[in-house]
Design brief:
Blueprint lengths: L1 E6 L3 H4 L5 H16 L4 E6 L27 E5 L10 H7 L4 E7 L1 H14 L3 E10 L14 H11 L4 E3 L1 H7 L2
Parallel strand pairs: 1-2, 1-4, 2-3, 4-5, 5-6
Helix pairs in contact: 4-5
Protein name: Isochorismatase family protein
Pfam families: Isochorismatase
GO molecular function, one term: hydrolase activity
Length: about 180
């Protein structure tokens, strides 16, 4: 069974990114998975620091309103990996999932960490590059011209253990 992981699509992150295309891609995948009766699991990050936009008491920590109607499964995390000290692995096992698809925020942190952790736990893992996004940019990392999604996708692809596709490729594979 396949499952879609929608990682940290929360107000506090989405509001900081140029991400309309990413949100549309994720929503298209959510709808496809739900139509095929495959699980969609939302991951929500909470920070312990009161001033953080991702502190549970802040509006920024909430999953964006547009996706609220899609939430059937929700896992709360406090680290970049959606597996670390959460019930994600048990939830996936209860749903007989052996293949996870990674989408969401931030590409180079929570999406990448979760993809690697999924692989380490024996899941077939597919990273949907254009269904991830980040609040960071080349200036953040002082690396002129850096395309973070492309860089992370390339690293994961070259590792030859995590499949990297874009939404169009996913849709073609499922036809």
């Amino acid at each position: 069974m396949q499952a879609l992981l929608v990682i940290d699509v929360q107000n506090g992150l989405v509001d900081l990114a140029q991400c309309n295309d990413t949100l549309a891609n994720i929503e298209q995948l959510i709808q496809r998975f739900q139509t095929q009766q495959k699980p969609v699991i939302f991951i929500q990050h909470f920070d312990d620091i009161q001033e953080s936009v991702l502190h549970p008491a802040n509006k920024g920590a909430q999953i964006i309103e547009r996706y609220q109607p899609y939430i059937e499964h929700l896992v709360i995390k406090r680290t970049p990996s959606a597996f670390y000290q959460t019930n994600l692995q048990e939830l996936l096992a209860s749903l007989s999932v052996d293949h996870v698809y990674i989408t969401g925020f931030n590409t180079e942190f929570c999406c990448q960490f979760t993809a690697i952790a999924a692989y380490d736990r024996g899941f077939r893992t597919t990273f949907i590059e254009d269904a991830t996004n980040t609040v960071n940019n080349a200036d953040t990392y002082e690396m002129s011209g850096l395309d973070i999604r492309d860089f992370v996708g390339t690293v994961l692809h070259w590792a030859s253990v995590i499949e990297v596709v874009d939404v169009e490729e996913y849709l073609e594979m499922q036809s």
